[in-house]
Design a protein that fits this description.
mainly alpha; 25 helices; two-stranded antiparallel ribbon
Length: about 575
């Protein structure tokens, strides 16, 4: 049984930066271990320091903290001893090759005593170059792509060739989930989904955690480890609770269970040398064996362009904001991509809402209302339903009848399409109130000082109803229609009666980006690939130098043209 003192340590949310450093250095176990960051520092210290891993107090804490137990077992193995372990996941470490590797004989004995760890042993062989041992156990495992990518990264060419010589490779080891699937692993290509050994030396500097944080010892805890009122609770504490910070960034991979924490961050250029950008593949078919590198831009490009094959192959189990925004753009512009996404589980949180809205919008614009029942979740309903395609008037009319919440969007679609019949029906039969956003759209149809039919009718109806629709940012407008300022953006990006212009900015590196800042035409979301598209197209001598950026205006750039009057 764990002592009460140990449990109290795991409930304490105090943070001491010096204590965190001491844990990283393997000097002492912090008193307060309630913060995730403090426990990560302890795991880091265990993995790097034998004496620290053997401290008696960690022997007690390991019974409460499974990651401590796994780290201690990993350190023991890497120090050429075989620990006593159960076959339970709480005891079995995933990574047993960082920061050091054991001897070949140690791994051989480990595989004999714990057959459930044979894939970890094979992976360690790829890291350490133990070809003989790998070939001994090769018949007991599937040719695994993670082991192959590890062997390639660590220079174990014989092991790499042994795996790639097989007719089919599989993904048994899952570095995202730290799991090994030996029951029904899927065939897989080499897709860059491995936390290769060089990546584990890329460290992130510990920050200063603050605010509420949950753990299994305290359901929701604050600065003092409980949820009770505190007489000393300050305005600073209140701010911290509104904007909590764990003091670390969650990495895509965490196979060592320490989030790569360190006293200082590794310079970014070192990571770039380990995982160079794969932007050279933007204009080529993907090879069967994806090169070692950073595939972020390939994932975003595939999402942006709605390329099902490339995206399904390259995607990861989790996505970031750039990828989610690019997905929205791809779904809007590619009906087949939208249909495919209807079969995929939506991610949790805001990204799932973005994607659901995009799917529904694309189906509406494709004149398919079969997926929209009488009461779909309100957050799944889009606003932009007229770009990049305009549905038939009959579709918009049926949408209006089915879902009254969509009527403001249909009114704006009618203005964008210059469909007077639909527009008049929305105003006169369905009594849709004009708002500042549809007025802004109508004004884009004005010709010089001459107001269009749509602008005149909207202003007249607003006057009848006593509505002030001339400003989108007034207190009145925000109170009545909400602070959805992105709705004021035209899909024409400010140009009248024409498509948006493609960007002409050049950077020394290609990028495909997205987010929720202005101008988020896709229900508040935007994405842009113009910089990558332009950089891929131009001659090498037109490319900017490192850390430079400029507009391709054919006056000051490219320099070969000289300055023109």
């Amino acid at each position: 049984m764990a002592t009460k003192a140990a449990q109290e340590r795991l409930r304490s949310m105090d943070f001491d930066r010096d204590a965190a450093r001491d844990a990283i250095r393997g000097i002492a176990v912090p008193r307060a271990l309630g913060r995730e960051l403090m426990r990560l520092c302890v795991v880091r210290g265990i993995r790097y320091h034998d004496a620290f891993a053997a401290l008696p107090e960690l022997g007690e804490l390991r019974r409460l903290v499974p990651e401590f137990a796994r780290a201690i077992n990993a350190r023991t193995i890497m120090s050429n001893s075989i620990p006593e372990m159960s076959a339970a996941a709480e005891d079995i470490p995933y990574c047993i090759w960082h920061p050091t590797t054991a001897t070949q004989e140690t791994y051989r004995e480990l595989a004999c005593r714990y057959p459930c760890m044979i894939y970890q042993v094979a992976r360690a062989c790829a890291v350490a170059g133990y070809t003989d041992l790998y070939l001994e156990i090769e018949a007991q495992i599937l040719p695994d792509v993670s082991i192959a990518e590890e062997a390639r990264a660590c220079g174990s060419e014989a092991i790499f060739r042994a795996i790639m010589s097989k007719p089919v490779q599989y993904r048994a080891m899952d570095d995202y989930a730290r799991s090994i699937n030996t029951q029904n692993p899927r065939p897989s290509l080499l897709n860059g989904d491995t936390a290769i050994r060089p990546m584990l030396d890329i460290k992130q500097e510990i920050g200063n955690p603050h605010g509420h944080e949950s753990n299994k010892w305290n359901t929701v805890v604050g600065q003092d480890g409980d949820s009770s009122d505190d007489d000393d609770f300050s305005a600073e504490d209140a701010f911290d609770d509104l904007f909590p910070d764990k003091g670390i960034t969650s990495n895509l991979f965490n196979i060592t269970e320490d989030m790569n924490v360190g006293e200082a961050s590794t310079p970014e250029e070192i990571l770039d040398s380990i995982l160079p950008s794969l932007d050279g593949l933007l204009t080529k078919p993907l090879p069967i064996v994806l090169p070692q590198g950073n595939k972020d831009i390939l994932i975003r490009e595939a999402a942006y362009n709605g390329n099902i094959d490339r995206y399904d192959r390259l995607r990861r189990p989790v996505m970031d904001t750039n990828e989610a925004a690019c997905l929205v753009r791809g779904i809007y512009h590619c009906p087949f991509f939208a249909i495919w996404w209807r079969t995929q589980p939506l991610p949790l949180g805001s990204y799932g809402l973005w994607i659901a809205q995009a799917i529904n919008a694309r189906m509406i614009m494709s004149n398919d209302l079969s997926q929209l029942g009488s009461a779909p979740p309100r957050p799944h309903l889009p606003y932009l339903i007229w770009y990049p395609a305009i549905a038939q008037s009959a579709t918009y009319m049926e949408l209006t009848r089915r879902l009254p919440d969509m009527r403001p969007a249909v009114l704006r679609a009618a203005v964008f399409a210059k469909d007077r019949t639909l527009f008049d029906t929305m105003l006169d039969e369905f009594d849709v109130e004009p708002d500042p956003y549809v007025l802004a759209e109508a004004k884009s149809t004005d010709e010089d000082a001459q107001q269009s039919y749509f602008t005149r009718r909207l202003l007249a109806r607003a006057e009848e109803l006593g509505l002030q629709i001339e400003s989108v940012s007034s207190d009145y407008a925000i109170q009545k229609w909400g602070a959805h300022l992105w709705k004021r953006n035209s899909v024409y990006s400010g140009a009248y009666n024409g498509p948006p212009r493609v960007g002409n900015w050049l950077y020394h590196f290609p990028d495909v980006v997205g987010g929720t800042e202005e101008p988020g035409i896709y229900n508040g979301v935007w994405a842009d690939a113009s910089a990558a598209e332009l950089l891929a197209s131009i001659p090498a001598e037109w490319r900017p130098k490192q850390d430079q950026s400029m507009a391709l205006d054919y006056k000051t750039w490219p320099p070969s043209l000289g300055t023109r009057n």
